[in-house]
Predict the 3D structure of the following.
Amino acid sequence: ALTPAGLTLEPGKAVGLELLNLYIERGYGAAQGDAERKFVLPFPSSRIPVPLLGYIDLAVPSERTFRDFKTTGSDYWNAVKVALEPAVAVYGWAYQRLYRHRAERARWLIFNHANVTLDVYDTVPSPDAFRLFEKIAEGVWYGIVHEQWTGCGSCRELCKPPVPRPANGPTVTWEEDAS
């Protein structure tokens, strides 16, 4: 087990050590692989002329798997959210290109510092899910190129559709405080 080597630790560091100990005690620490495996790969679609860049937290080719590590203070993650996470499809596609075989499993390890737990969710990367991701990326690229980006629809605050602004002065949207 990891122990503080005579150092005074703040509660955050102590919790971090407890979480790492959970990881080791469950046998996850023995995996040998490529940490922070960077990829810069062209999309299969010729409609997207920019590469897809990312990092797989830990690729473990000997187990035909990859891992993603998340740190949270809430109960946001569950098996359904992991299965629907676009990164599962993207990393699965990239993994296959990098290692020349499909990943049989994607493992999401969720370190919860609020209740000091380690939740583990396994799912299988889907080529169909990557194709859906690619189709969405085609639409985003088209919107960027044609200056028609109206937002992704998943949030309301970050990518709101643009507010028309007349050429003769500023405008105020109904959501803004006009006082």
